[in-house]
Design a protein that fits this description.
The protein is an alpha/beta fold. It contains 7 helices and 5 strands; from the N terminus they run αααβαβαββααβ.
Length: about 170
């Protein structure tokens, strides 16, 4: 099979594309946001696909495009969307402004907030819950590792300054 471009004759086209691969890989591993990493992984796969196609390895390019880029990016996006949610039971009598403060607090951890109400339990949504929100801005968590990460974020000091507290469920500490 003949390549679309020959290596000696078209180095000026292949070299910039090839140079982008390690640059994109370095950007990929340096990201703190999983969503940005996922997008860069898609770009890296697209660059690889382009390079394989230009060098004449169309079968490898097609495999990389379909499996390495499209399928893996889609599966990772679905998995991240479902697993990166902080699910809390809402045990307050009246909703206050705590949701905005919680969102600001957990945003450095790239988490979404889902406050589960009694209506969610009645409708059969029995997903894993990470804790609950009580009256008086008290957040109770069931996992010690999550509590430790939340205490180390900058938003924790603001939460405390607004009268909030964070505690670990008693049986989770053991």
């Amino acid at each position: 099979m003949n390549a679309l471009l020959s290596l000696p004759g078209q180095l000026d086209v292949l070299l910039p594309i090839t140079a982008l691969l390690p640059l994109c890989a370095l950007l990929l591993v340096s990201q703190s946001s999983p969503w940005q990493s996922l997008m860069l992984r898609g770009i890296l796969g697209s660059l690889s696909t382009l390079l394989y196609a230009l060098l004449g390895a169309v079968d490898v390019a097609l495999t990389e495009a379909l499996v390495g880029t499209l399928l893996s990016t889609t599966l990772y996006a679905v998995a991240m969307r479902s697993s990166m949610t902080l699910r809390l039971d809402d045990r307050r009598q009246e909703a206050g402004g705590e949701e905005e403060e919680l969102l600001q607090w957990i945003s450095p951890l790239n988490l979404r907030l889902r406050l589960m109400t009694s209506a969610d339990m009645i409708s059969g949504q029995t997903r894993v819950r990470h804790g609950w929100l009580e009256e008086g801005r008290t957040l109770v968590l069931t996992r010690a590792a999550l509590a430790k990460r939340l205490r180390n974020t900058p938003g924790f000091e603001r939460w405390q300054a607004l009268g909030g507290s964070l505690r670990l469920q008693e049986d989770a500490a053991a």
